[in-house]
Design brief:
Blueprint (H helix, E strand, L loop, with lengths): L15 H26 L7 H17 L5 H18 L2
Helix pairs in contact: 1-2, 2-3
Amino acid sequence: MQTHAGLKRTVPIDSPQFLESITMLNQRRRLALVAWRSILERPTSRADLERKYHELLSAADGMEKEGLINGEEWRKLARKAAACFDETKY
């Protein structure tokens, strides 16, 4: 029996529950990435830049822990957060 490792429980690939689970996982992923992007694009004062940077990293950590993104995707988000921090802190 084949299963999908990113799901919280083992679901056979040939079952209707598998497709439903994947769809729900993709929706959660999309919503989490939209939320992350909204944090990134939110206007921030210079005084709050460091807090925003840590908020972005924390959101990326949560997505990785939930299995919504992998390590490579986490690194991309972390680099974008760092670039935003570096560009706007001066």
